[in-house]
Hints:
Helices cover 48% and strands 21% of the residues. The protein is an alpha+beta fold. It has a 17-stranded antiparallel beta sheet that branches. Helix 3 crosses helix 7, helix 6 packs across helix 11 and helix 8 crosses helix 10.
Amino acid sequence: MAKRIIKFTPIAASVALTLGLTGCGSDNDNNKYTPDPVTVYKGEVSTDFNTQISGKAVKGSLKNAVVSVSTLNDAGESVPVAFRLEATTDATYSAESTTSQADADAKALAMLTAENPADAMTSASGGYSIYLEDDFTGPLYITVSTSKEGDDSMVKCDSFTGCGDYDSAPEMSDVAGMVNNGDSSIDFGEWYKDDLELQVVKFIKAPTTAAASNLRGPSFADGDGTGVKHYFANVTLYTSIAAKMLLDAAKDGSAVSDEAIAAASLKTLIQILGPEAAIKAAALLADVSLGGAVDFSDIGDGDSLDAGTLALVQTAVSLQSVAGSGANGSLKDLIASLSAAVQDGKVSNSDNEVVQKIAAELQKAVENTSLIFAAVVSGEGIEEAFAKVADNLGITDPDAIAKLKENATKAVEEVKAKAKEAGLDDDLAKTAKEVKDALEKIGCEDNCDAGDDFIAKAAAELELQIIDATTELAASADLVTAGTTELATVKALGDTGLETAEQVLAYSGAVFSLSAQQAMFSQLQLELTGKLALARGVAATAVTLGEQYQQLADKANVLSSDIATQLAAVTALIAGINEEVTRSDEAVAALGIELDVAKNNAQLASTSLDATSDAVMTAQAGLATAMIAVEAAMLDNQANAQLALTSAQTAVVAATNTLEKASALTVAVEQAKMAAATLMEIATDAVDKQLATSLAEDAQLSATTAITVSEQATIALASATSLESDAMAAIATFTVLVDVKASTDDIRNVSLVTKSGGEALFDTAEVIYDVLSEAWDLGDEGTDVVSTRYPDWTYSFDKDALELDLVNTETGDMITVNGSINNKAIIFAFGGMVETAEGAKIHIETLEDMGGALENCIDANAGTITKEASDSCLVINFEEEVSSDTAIDGTVLSVDGWSRVEIVDADSGFVGTLSLSGTDMSELAMISATGITGEIDFTAMLSVDWANEDDIYAVDVELHNGTGYKLSLMAEEGEDFMGSVDANFAGAMMKFGTVTEITNGISVEYIDGEVIEYTDITFLDSSK
């Protein structure tokens, strides 16, 4: 209800007072005294406190920490706000004044805050919950603080490497919740005293009404079916940093709003985590208070260990260990320094030496935390991880390293165990590795803005989170429906009448069976509450990404609404079960049949225990059969990989079913224990006591069975899931292998092109060089000279102009050459038509303007243009500067040539670039071809390295197709080629086959065991 101020007028008060004074005064009429009436004003305020704000204060958990609640005025100053610790309807507060009605009203309103609870504190897990007035809107500022002295507040250490040392070692304790090993070190899971204050700023606005349901944007405070509106506001390192920015901005006149909170959250996450890790926490980019509040030492129902949460928690945990070292100030000091740095937009690249040091130490600490967690959770690289951690911490003493490893390993094992209890261990090892990689470099230096690439990646992450949450929601919907149906059935049974013992026995038995599910629904309630926070975060972030992602925001809003609906149903279901339990207890008490009901419940529990035990045994047998196929699975070819996938998926179903049956058995065990204890308490007859004893014993045996089977099924599920992943990868690999085999077959055409083109280019270069040498001895110029070295070639030349025209009188081949001396090099542009020994026509392309072609060759040699931008060129590099007269006697250091060629009159056809190079200095010569033959786009390179005693020949052929195919071969002089066939798979090059040389070709043994010979690959001998 809205807040009401009820006014009592002064006229009414005066009349009442006058009437009350009638008859007063002296008996002496002459001395009668009548006092002036006193005006009393009365103000009354009536309001509802049904807007819930709840969350957890974690750095680790803050226990018994003081919770302070306020709002901000227009000047950005903190002022009190009314709140309560429980939901309250029609709370009324009255006040009186003899001054004015306004004063009475003000006093009544002041009572709202005056009645604020003085003992608002966090729980042992750091949790808190408060309720605001329904009509409160605006900024909400919450602080949670602990003290070193004067109260019972404590901070929990959740750093694997510890949180420093106690001022004085506490006594050893094994009390639950206060475990301490008694040494001076503050170890993982231990409580300690510290001065710490964490903050969060929220913006509370009027909830979306039904009339405005068509408006776009996230719904921030949907109800849970109880009339209570709910906001999530965790209090963490990150909310504290964002809060400083918001509070400082408010003092400067910038109002707190959803947009301001989104900007502060985004800046905080990018500056502290870095862009890559921030994307993992995409659901919190618009409001970081919606998540990240997980205490590693106390993981429970409703928590999350997704990649984003792990990144947040591991970084926050690491800051606690930095504070524990004592070299950089207290935890409070570190948070203050980081807050200022984030506000300035400089953390990793800060100009402040203190911040620089903190950032560097935090990076090391984050590396330590992520290395330890990933190694221990996965069981991989443990020794290497702790060696690196010890190095980062400067620990060299073997005993100290051993202790570090022991304590940290124990801590992570505790996290794993609690994660498993909470059902959060699926894919935990994979997620831990993913987060370790993301946290290799935290913070940002020059990539601190959320650009288009960041936004696109964040949107993709949000899409995945929506898909996962939708799938999980659908899975739990059947449970809720079944529970709601059973509740209705039980309620109807009770409504038919509870007058007779038979009726009550039947009804109480049905209630007993239904109540066994209450723990499951309570756990689901916590999980849905966490999912609702996630969905709201996704929706809020999606809105900030821009109009193009409105569809994403719409999906998130639908998801949020669906979760809220299911949460309301579960809340109502739990309340309904409690009501039926109460009604059953009252009916049983009214008839005095407690013993009969206890025996009946024991029988029901025993029957349930037997049935669920049988179901577990059946499921276990099915799982054992399925795992035989898993253990026998092979991935050596596509057919076997497909069979392995089927076996893995069958085993996954069997393992999941077994886990469900084991969970049901656990529920039946608890129900049996409760029934046995109740019967034993009230039984007087030996037979009844024996029934209770037997039931308790059976329950204990079944409990052991449930644990054993659950552990076996968990291991089997991990094995089957691993095989499923491997089989899917193998199938994908063998699918690529089909293309790889086809690509190797295409090598035949590439080999023809390489051999034909290479021979033509080498032959052309050799003819040009040899004819020039010959012509140099004939004078300055000549016409139609028959070559003495190549009788089929006739040439004309001009030595000074370095021009040469050649014609092959037998084949009609023509070569035109135009050269230029450039210090220690002679550069030629050339072109023409050449025929190879196999009859292929090679068109060596050049410009019609040979002068322009030569200029291009000169520029390409100088590097001012690319070789691809020129046509056909030949560069002869000399030891010393040469002229047209001295070049013929100069010492040649290297030859470099490249040609744009087209092969015609051959089976393959080719258009592309051929290059050759050779140098005495590097003792390496090579020829490469890049172009297209038929439909094959390829690059091939043949090389010889004679730097060793035996020349080494190498051949590399890449096909520019979808697989990224590459054939790599190598051989020493006189030996056969050997190598591999590789292709791109899953973003990396993978070996698909081993290659050996055979006569006139190659033989490839592929990864599926098939051996295929490819003949007519002639460039192997040619390369030698």
